[in-house]
Amino acid sequence: MTIFRPTLLTPLLSLASALLLTACHSGQGHGQPGVPGEDQGTQPFTAIAPDDTLHFVGTEPFWGGEASGGMLTYSTPGNPDGTRIPVKRFGGRNGLGLSGMLDGDTFDMTVTPGTCSDGMSDRRYPFTVTLNIGGDIREGCGWTDSRPATEPQAL
């Protein structure tokens, strides 16, 4: 997983992420991710409840952590215990957004459903994670206790 440092692309990616989460959809559910069953076109994403613990991980550079309620812990190899930050939570129609501040920089994480690979193991994760820390874009994977990663099959 790679860090990008584009100057014009960063604001556009942030805007695209926000639009992905908040895009308007008229009419009754048309297969949009979100709440299973009822009107999927107008209901917010609920696959990760506020009291669920979301775990996330990324490589190149290595990073990870977990979030639950209004708090998030972000860790790196240089800070294995992590830094705890308060975050605001936003359930869009196609994912979850978590926003806060980390060491004076904006911290915006978007979590969407979709099979994800960490590129280092054969594990498969149920969520993709896009992280923007002060303009540095990172990609990773996520899981919860109720929607865990799947381990590789033994031969």
Automatic annotation (TrEMBL):
Keyword annotations from UniProtKB, A to Z: Signal
Signal peptide (from-to): 1-31
Domain of life: Bacteria
Species whose genome carries this gene: Novosphingobium rhizovicinum
Protein name: COG3650 family protein
